[in-house]
């Protein structure tokens, strides 16, 4: 038995427990599946810290080396995914320092008061109204044909690239990769309130970007 294989691991699901056991046993297919599933999201997150996609790819490779070296010391105090991404963030931060482009994690928690949402305030309910902050003028649904063709997805991807780094990171993790709010807060070291503000501003800007391209009623602008 490999060292650490008998250690109790609270991984949350039987599927993850089986995956972890296979990885610890040296199952190459399991490791390849793990890499394939996470490569894109990991590169996307790494680009928040480093200067180019090429460097981000190197950071991801360094992360996987760290995963292989530390796998048998993983104690299951968080999910396997969270553990891997924390290694990624640490590798990315170290690489950013070497690349003279350090972006401190504390910056992700700062919310610039001048950086307001891109969607006009009148489209939300006022503080004195019931459901304050919710849509008063909801977004129109986009035409199914455009959604099915991938046009909207392409526009959303383009819009993400225009966002400030903190907003792009939070929205990518939440809406693209499906992370829960508490997972994002733990990974990035930010408060739940800051996470919520960053996500709201990112979503409003992406919505405004797409609406500008396709029109509020789905017509070209």
Automatic annotation (TrEMBL):
Lineage top rank: taxon: Bacteria
Family annotation (SUPFAM superfamilies): Sigma2 domain of RNA polymerase sigma factors, Sigma3 and sigma4 domains of RNA polymerase sigma factors
Pfam families: Sigma70_r2 (PF04542), Sigma70_r4_2 (PF08281)
InterPro entries assigned: RNA_pol_sigma-70-like, RNA_pol_sigma-70_dom, RNA_pol_sigma70_r2, RNA_pol_sigma70_r4_t2, RNA_pol_sigma_r2, RNA_pol_sigma_r3/r4-like, WH-like_DNA-bd_sf
Domain RNA polymerase sigma-70 region span(s) in chain numbering: 34-98
Signal peptide: none
Domain RNA polymerase sigma factor 70 region 4 type residues, every copy: 156-205
Keywords: DNA-binding, Sigma factor, Transcription, Transcription regulation
Gene3D superfamilies tied to this protein: 1.10.1740.10, Winged helix-like DNA-binding domain superfamily/Winged helix DNA-binding domain (1.10.10.10)
Sequence similarity: Belongs to the sigma-70 factor family. ECF subfamily.
Protein name: RNA polymerase sigma24 factor
């Amino acid at each position: 038995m490999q060292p650490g294989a008998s250690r109790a691991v609270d991984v949350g699901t039987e599927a993850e427990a089986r995956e972890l056991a296979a990885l610890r046993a040296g199952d190459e297919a399991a490791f390849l599946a793990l890499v394939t599933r996470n490569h894109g999201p990991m590169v996307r997150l790494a680009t928040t810290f480093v200067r180019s996609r090429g460097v981000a790819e190197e950071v991801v490779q360094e992360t996987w080396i760290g995963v292989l070296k530390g796998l048998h010391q993983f104690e299951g105090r968080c999910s396997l995914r969270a553990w891997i991404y924390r290694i990624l963030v640490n590798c990315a931060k170290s690489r950013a320092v070497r690349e003279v482009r350090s972006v401190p994690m504390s910056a992700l928690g700062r919310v610039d008061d001048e950086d307001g949402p891109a969607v006009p305030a009148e489209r939300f309910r006022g503080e004195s109204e019931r459901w304050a902050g919710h849509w008063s003028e909801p977004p129109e649904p986009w035409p199914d044909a455009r959604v099915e063709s991938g046009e909207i997805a392409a526009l959303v991807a383009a819009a993400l690239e225009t966002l400030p780094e903190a907003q792009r990171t939070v929205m990518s993790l939440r809406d693209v990769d499906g992370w829960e709010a508490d997972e994002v807060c733990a990974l990035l070291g930010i408060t739940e309130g800051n996470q919520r503000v960053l996500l709201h501003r990112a979503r409003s800007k992406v919505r405004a970007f797409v609406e500008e391209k396709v029109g509020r009623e789905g017509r070209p602008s």
